[in-house]
Specification:
single chain, 2 domains, five-stranded mixed beta sheet, 16 helices, 5 strands
Length: 307
């Protein structure tokens, strides 16, 4: 994904079968969460055993099941590294229809309890109970989130930190760049969303950074800087990411430069001989948040935005 030459990338087939099996089992064990924690969605599979009187409804459930099975196979092949929040996780697309069948099944079973007509409130109590349980996690955390949001009023709200801090993007970064500038970043989606600036995903090595600079210059949209956030250097698998074959292996002096700043030491790109040309091109190193948790390497002086 981060390579300028995808055709040169090796297709990782080692352990593919085991990964497919593991992902399949993971999907099954996290089925409730994958369905958005909707209580009745997994009950769709129980509804498969019920003989619905309307033929169209009875047939449509098998079509849903067939589509879901093939979707599950596809997710097993492509992988779900981030679990229920992975971009490849599409169980949630089936949740509304499956929840409808599950709710119908619960309603049928509830109706067979023969609740007296005088107890009208209990006849629909199952609907209230299902909604309350499904919405419970959100309802329990909403008061706390409201309080936290009110406490952060006037300073940019309560961001999803780490790695995102909107104020650093839509103020300082946006004020020091133009709409013609391109920013290389480990979170290009955040730059594009918060700062409204064109951004390119951080490539794999220095050579590809130079290629991006050349292409951008030819298009008269020059690269103005490189932005690094905790998205890359705050990984739990730091040693694996910084290895030669890791995610940021060849760019570790750039990605992990924040750790040098935390220790009051010179930036890694100023010390590494291969990165000195890059350091000279982007000599203005400006922390956009705190001690450099979000670091911007700019080719021009950066002026911090005033409240």
């Amino acid at each position: 994904m981060r390579s300028l030459s995808p055709a040169d990338q090796q297709l990782g087939l080692r352990g593919l079968l085991l990964n497919i099996i593991a992902t399949t089992l993971g999907q099954i064990s996290d089925l409730h969460r994958n369905f958005g924690a909707i209580l009745v969605a997994p009950l769709f599979f129980v509804a498969l055993l019920h003989p619905f009187k309307r033929e169209s409804l009875a047939s449509f459930r098998w079509l849903i099941l067939l589509m879901w099975v093939f979707a599950g196979i596809g997710m097993s092949i492509y992988g779900l590294k981030l679990g229920s929040m992975d971009p490849n996780q599409i169980h949630i697309l089936f949740a509304p229809l499956m929840a409808a069948y599950g709710l119908a099944m619960v309603s049928i079973l509830w109706a067979r309890l023969n609740i007296p007509q005088s107890m009208h409130a209990l006849r629909y109590a199952h609907l209230i109970l299902i909604v309350a349980i499904s919405a419970g996690p959100m309802l329990l955390t909403t008061p706390q989130n409201i309080i936290r949001g009110m406490q952060q009023d006037g300073i940019g709200g309560f961001p999803h930190w780490p790695p995102y801090f909107p104020k650093a993007y839509n103020r300082t970064l946006a004020d020091n760049t133009t709409t013609k500038d391109i920013i290389i970043s480990d979170t290009p989606w955040a730059v594009a969303w918060y700062a409204d600036r064109m951004s390119v995903w951080l490539p794999e090595n220095l050579e590809q950074i130079e290629q991006i600079e050349t292409l951008a210059s030819n298009q008269q949209t020059p690269v103005s800087g490189i932005l690094i956030s905790p998205y890359s250097f705050n990984s739990k698998n730091m040693i694996g990411n910084a290895s030669p074959q890791g995610t940021y292996g060849e760019l570790y002096p750039l990605v992990y430069g924040a750790w040098a700043r935390f220790g009051n030491a010179p930036n890694f790109i100023d010390l590494h001989p291969l990165f000195k040309p890059l350091s000279q091109r982007y000599q203005h190193k400006q922390p956009l948040f705190s001690y450099g948790y979000i670091m911007y390497y700019s080719n021009r002086p950066v002026v911090e935005s005033v409240e």
